[in-house]
């Protein structure tokens, strides 16, 4: 039954683009309060979100990114998150504020950023009623892109007692704002171009070395035209040396 209620509340969030509070009465009459009547007043009120508060019995919360199912958050730009609350308690709920923080995914004790505190001065949810509240936040524009954990809580009061519900505790994907190419993309493109230039220079050098080797003239061996001096000395006085001498004299004539 509890899961069915949460599912119904999520459907209500998706079907409610405008903030409204529906008052369920015994005679089935519904009174709707528009967003301007909730009294959103910024973040200068008393801080009750110190982590020591607990949820009130009979109060359920759920949240949804209405235009961003991928939960992709652009650094420096506002993102909308709808917070739904269902009051099954016997008393009315007076909503105090909504706040959130960004943490490293592997350890929530490592806080990255405290986000905007959105405070209300006139937001109530009567018994057996449901309400939807918008929460607008923006992570720092200097936050590096990556995956982070977002923890969102809603602070409220019942019979002068303060309570707190965690409506969101999950991952978001932070991306860089503006521009077609990110810093990482520009770096990778530049590195790729530099590697291609170096590869081209190396190939050009190899081709030039190969062409120089092919242009070198081959050595020509003279066969019988070259005689060893020691061989001439060994043949001196023989018939062979005399025949050579006579042939040379005939060529001179």
UniProtKB/TrEMBL annotation:
Transmembrane segment boundaries: 186-205
Reported function: TRAP proteins are part of a complex whose function is to bind calcium to the ER membrane and thereby regulate the retention of ER resident proteins. May be involved in the recycling of the translocation apparatus after completion of the translocation process or may function as a membrane-bound chaperone facilitating folding of translocated proteins.
Protein name: Translocon-associated protein subunit alpha
Membrane topology, from the record: Single-pass type I membrane protein
Pfam name, any one: TRAP_alpha
Signal peptide (from-to): 1-24
Source organism: Turnera subulata
Entry similarity comment: Belongs to the TRAP-alpha family.
GO cellular component, one term: endoplasmic reticulum membrane
Keyword tags: Calcium, Endoplasmic reticulum, Membrane, Signal, Transmembrane, Transmembrane helix
Highest classification ranks of the organism: Eukaryota, Viridiplantae, Streptophyta, Embryophyta, Tracheophyta
UniProt-annotated location(s): Endoplasmic reticulum membrane
